[in-house]
Amino acid sequence: MGFMDDAKETAEAVGESIKRSAHDTADKIGDKADEMKADADVKKAEAERDSVETRNEIKEDLRDN
Questions:
Q1: Tens-level pLDDT at each residue, the chain (65 residues)
Q2: Closest Cα partner for 56 from 13, 24, 48, 44?
Q3: Which parts of the sequence are annotated with region: Disordered (predicted)?
Q4: Euclidean distance between CA atoms 21 and 30, whole angstroms
Q5: 3-state SS string over the chain?
């Protein structure tokens, strides 16, 4: 029975290692998705800022004429 017990323990250890690896991979994917969303939010905010600045410059030019 010693061989079977060792094989069972090894299989359980491998299964646990695979489980941890899958969990870590899922966490990494989630982290990358969060990072990409944050980058998109920053780009959107910068575009809105630039739009407002341009609009204000145009309004100021129209007031001067």
A1: 577 888 889 899 999 999 999 999 999 999 999 999 999 999 999 999 999 999 999 999 898 87
A2: 48
A3: 1-65
A4: 14
A5: CHHHHHHHHHHHHHHHHHHHHHHHHHHHHHHHHHHHHHHHHHHHHHHHHHHHHHHHHHHHHHHHC
